[in-house]
Amino acid sequence: MKKSEALIKRLLNILMKRLNVKEIDETKEALLMGSKRINLNYYPVCPNHDLTVAIGRHSDVSTLTILLQDQTGGLFVRTEDRRGWIHVPPIPGALVINIGDALQIMSNGRYKSIEHRVTANGSKTRVSVPIFVNPRPSDVIGPFLEVLASDGEKAKYKNVLYSDYVKHFFRKAHDGKMTIEYAKIT
C-alpha cells in the first residue's frame, strides 16, 4: 500500500490537469484518496464456468482502482457502444487502472467509470489484487468547482455523502453502471 502512494498521486496529478485543478492541496488529496482498501481475490477452478459469473457487471465506486492480475485472465470491460465486452489480457508486471464512479462524479462526467466483469475459468485458478482508492466515508463528493467554472458547465451530478453512495452500491445486485444514477441530477 505504501509503495502504491507515489503512483496514485502521479496518476491523480495528471488526471486533475484536464479538470483545471492546478494543484492537489491537502483537502483535495483527502477527497480523492483519503481511504484505500486492498482486496486479495481468489477464484477457484469452476467446472461449470460457462454457467457462472465470478463477479457480475459493475463499475467501481472508487476514485481509482489499481489492479494487479495473474496470467489467467478473465477481466472484461464493456465496449463504448455497450453492446459487447473486450477481454483485458494480463501482461506480466502490468497494472490495470480503472476510473471509478467517484472520479466520474467529481469530474462531472469528463472521466467515465468503466463497467467491467470477471468470468470464471474452467481449468485454472485466478488471483487478482485490486487497490481501491476512495474518498473517506464522511466526504461529500460532487463536481469540482474548477470543472464547473471553466466553461460555465452545469453540474450533472449532485453532492452526495460518499458513505451513502457506497451503501447504495452494496444494497443491491451488481447492475452495470446503474449506481451512478443515484448521484445524477435529473
TrEMBL record:
PROSITE patterns annotated for this entry? FE2OG_OXY
* Coiled coil start-end: none
Q: Which UniProt keywords apply?
A: Iron, Metal-binding, Vitamin C
Question: In its keyword annotation, does this UniProt entry include Metal-binding?
Answer: yes
Residues annotated as signal peptide: none
- Output the Gene Ontology terms for molecular function: L-ascorbic acid binding; metal ion binding
Where's the Fe2OG dioxygenase domain? 27-135
Concerning SUPFAM superfamilies, the annotation shows: Clavaminate synthase-like (SSF51197)
Q: Where does the sequence pass through the membrane?
A: none
InterPro entries for this protein: IPNS-like_FE2OG_OXY, IPNS-like_sf, Oxoglu/Fe-dep_dioxygenase_dom, Plant_2OG-oxidoreductases
One Pfam family assigned to this protein is: 2OG-FeII_Oxy
- Name of protein: Fe2OG dioxygenase domain-containing protein
Give the organism the record lists: Arachis hypogaea (Peanut)
